[in-house]
Write a structure and sequence with these properties.
heterodimer, A: about 180 residues, Rossmann fold, 5 helices, globular, B: 3-stranded antiparallel beta sheet, 12 strands
């Protein structure tokens, strides 16, 4: 895959997220991995994705090829973070096909893509971004969504007890996937 | 028989932005009601917090408007505490703001609004050769060869064939209100993709100055970025030249892609001049050349226009308790001194009281309260805010750049100034403004470089950083012209903590319900009189609502595995 990353942007991001790891020269599966946390931290469990990202950052030390991005509710403005990576993990609160309060992991083609009729740019969610990245022909080789259905979407900062309990599992699932991506080939 | 159309974006969360339109027997909209959710509890989260942290919370209100709430917030705290920011900080904020507007307008036009005018499926029938001829006749933009359009068309065919219409399954393709020939549709689709690719470059300016993006860093008293031409970790020569390149490329894209497309598309729709609405326009103004308080130096002027009278621009003072008010006669709140009495934001109250039907419901009882939006009014008038309002205020005040560009657009389309009072006028104003703000980006870049050359590297004024220097009680007002219109933050600081915080956002002006006098808000008014070709497919409603670039509360960005339709249309 061509290297689409822009050097200075990368440098800034690395600085911003201050990931430091011993530089290795081994050949890994993916040269650039983006981990994106989505959601609005002001609306309780809506912030699950951002909380999972922060928890992952605090509990791991990844090499410089792994970038953590707090995407908030930015919609299409996050397109570059999808298109510039070889592999992407997205944390988000989600509405699953069935409905148990547990951690769900969806991979690649399991994720729906569409460009919907909408009232506002604010309705541009992750599925739209996938649709556009596909149209551009710039989809990452792998993309994984990890999330859980919210319990509380009221205005407050912090997760509900139920979702807080699911956080470690979501983070653990991400770590397992990242480690396979970082394994030498 | 009279029909009622209901357009509701997110079925599982009632009332995000819901439009109910009543049609007469000829399918012309007789009346319309707009109902929505605003950010209705920011003060709950901010109350008792350190005012210096407010920007970081308000920045999270909106996912699309990114930096604008941070900017309005630091400005209102600085106003309350009497802080002057260094020249570099003012220039950098202006540059970031101009960047935000430029990028946002570009994305709005291509991603949200273009498909109201452009039929993607029709593009499949275009002749690539003819498309190339047309593209080269309207612009020197290099991506215009026969092969380029042929490749794109084949890619589109693949997508459409991948399952019904693949990712485009949800449009009103083939609707009789679409007027473009297939070749112009294909050009627009090509630029839809190019624009989304290109906007990623523009936003890098926010990363350079804000340290990160999304959610760049702001700072009460200035900006958090260090300037030093010779340091790797600061804004240095290398970063400045990167910024210059982005600015040059942006101006080229606006001039060679956005503006030619806008004119080409508008040429086919100039007979569709519906959607004008109120005829009242308000702008707080923005882009201060000196201090914010000296609003005579704003590059986007401040003022109000009533009843489309472009000869008279009325002075505006958002601090004046008699000018900017919010009432709740049709909103699900209650006021201690009566719901129909307008309160200035410094006296604002936010006591929710839902009296609407229990969701899910068929329609709202619009004689009573029917929206979560409050009803902002300027001197009791409903006002439109946003690009059209700003362009008209600048035009009426004789701004030379705006006069020239508006004149060029009108003469190219062979229409008179009255054509501006329409949905198409709003859409044209956004393009005119985007060209202007791309120019502002260069202007501020030049200012910044010139100031750095004098040896001034200051970006932060720390004089009043320490809360012990603050007065016990103070109030402040911070404003900006966000891409969608006038945004105000009002703060009351007491004992070094936030006591009250009120925000009036652009979409509350535009999407407001009726007031106590029965006057419609801007969306409601703009929809009246619009003929609908097919009420089951209310493309005309979406066109006009989209032309305002609506901002909805960002409560829900839940990822829905079911891929549920996010805007429903019902005829009841």
């Amino acid at each position: 895959m061509e290297n689409k990353a822009c050097c200075w942007g990368e440098a800034l991001l690395q600085w911003a997220f201050s990931f430091r790891f011993n530089q290795t020269t081994c050949i890994v599966k993916y040269n650039r991995i983006n981990i994106i946390g989505l959601g609005n931290i002001l609306y309780g469990d809506e912030g699950f994705g951002v909380a999972a990202l922060n928890s992952l950052k605090e509990s791991s030390a990844f090499p410089e090829s792994v970038h953590c991005i707090d995407g908030g509710t930015q919609g299409v403005y996050l397109l570059d973070f999808i298109e510039s990576a070889d592999a992407v993990i997205v944390f988000d609160a989600l509405i699953p096909l069935d409905y148990d309060r547990q951690v769900y992991v969806y991979r690649n083609d399991e994720l729906p893509d569409f460009i919907h009729r909408k009232m506002s740019s604010h309705q541009m969610g992750f599925s739209e971004m996938l649709g556009i990245a596909k149209l551009h022909g710039k989809m990452p080789e792998e993309i994984v969504m990890i999330g859980a259905p919210p319990k509380d979407l009221e205005l407050n900062v912090g997760l509900s007890h139920e979702l807080a309990l699911l956080l470690p599992e979501a983070v653990e699932r991400a770590k397992e996937i990242i480690n396979t991506w970082l394994a030498e080939v | 028989m009279a029909k009622k159309i209901v357009v509701d974006p997110i079925p599982r969360i009632e009332g995000h932005l819901r439009i109910e339109a009543k049609l007469n027997d000829s399918n012309v909209i007789e009346d319309a009601y707009s109902s929505g959710t605003m950010w209705r509890g920011i003060e709950v989260i901010l109350k008792g917090r350190d005012p210096r942290d407010a920007w970081a919370f308000t920045e999270r209100i909106c996912g699309v408007c990114t930096t604008v709430h941070a900017l309005a917030s630091v400005r209102c705290v600085e106003d309350a505490l009497g802080i002057d920011i260094p020249l570099n900080a003012r220039i950098i904020r202006n540059l970031m703001n101009a960047t935000q507007v430029t990028q946002d307008h570009l994305v709005h036009f291509y991603h949200l609004h273009a498909l109201d005018w452009v039929d993607v499926v029709s593009a499949l029938k275009a002749d690539p050769k003819q498309t190339s001829v047309i593209a080269q006749s309207i612009s020197p933009w290099p991506k215009s060869s026969v092969g380029y359009f042929k490749d794109l068309q084949q890619r589109l065919v693949g997508f459409v064939e991948s399952g019904q219409l693949g990712i485009f399954s949800n449009g009103y393709w083939g609707h009789a209100a679409y007027k473009l020939p297939p070749e112009v549709n294909l050009i627009a689709v090509a630029h839809y993709l190019e624009a989304l690719d290109f906007q990623k470059e523009i936003v890098k300016i926010q990363t350079i100055f804000g340290g990160k993006n999304p959610h760049p860093n702001y700072l009460v008293g200035g900006m958090a970025c260090a300037i030093d031409p010779n340091k790797d970790t600061a804004i240095n020569i290398e970063r400045l030249s990167m910024i210059k390149k982005i600015i040059d490329d942006t101006a080229t894209f606006i001039d060679q892609v956005y503006i030619p497309d806008l004119l080409a598309i508008a040429g086919y729709y100039k007979g569709w001049l519906h959607g004008g609405g109120l005829g009242n326009y308000l702008s707080y103004g923005d882009f201060p050349e000196t201090s914010l308080a000296d609003f005579k130096t704003l590059l986007w002027p401040r003022g109000a226009i009533l009843n489309k009278d472009l000869k008279t621009v009325i002075d505006v003072d958002p601090r004046d308790a008699a000018q900017v008010t919010e009432e709740v006669s049709h909103s699900w709140y209650t006021y201690s001194k009566g719901d129909g009495k307008g309160l200035h934001p410094w006296q604002g109250e936010t006591t929710p009281k839902y009296t609407g039907p229990k969701p899910p419901f068929e329609h709202l009882d619009t004689d009573k309260k029917y929206s979560w939006l409050k009803t902002p009014r300027w001197k009791n008038h409903p006002m439109e805010v946003g690009p059209l309002a700003r362009v008209l205020v600048a035009y009426a005040k004789g701004d030379p750049m705006i006069k020239d560009t508006v004149g060029l657009v009108l003469s190219t389309l062979q229409v008179g100034p009255e054509a501006l009072f329409s949905t198409l006028g709003r859409t044209a104003a956004r393009g005119i403004e985007c060209k202007q703000t791309a120019g502002f980006m260069r202007h501020y870049y030049d200012q910044l470089v010139a100031n750095i050359k004098t040896g001034d590297y200051r970006t932060f004024n720390s004089d009043r950083w320490d809360p012990s220097t603050w007065p016990a009680e103070c109030k402040g007002f911070g404003y900006t012209e966000a891409p969608r219109g006038s945004l105000g933050h009002w703060i009351h600081i007491s004992d070094r903590k936030i006591k009250e915080y009120q925000i009036v956002v652009p979409s509350t002006w535009n999407a407001s319900p009726r007031d106590a006098n029965g006057n419609s808000g801007a969306y409601e008014s703009a929809l009246k009189g619009t003929p609908m070709i097919n009420p089951e497919q209310p493309l005309e409603i979406l066109r006009t609502v989209h032309s305002f670039d609506p901002c909805l509360a960002c409560a829900s960005h839940l990822f829905d595995m079911n891929g549920n339709e996010i805007t429903s249309v019902k005829i009841v």
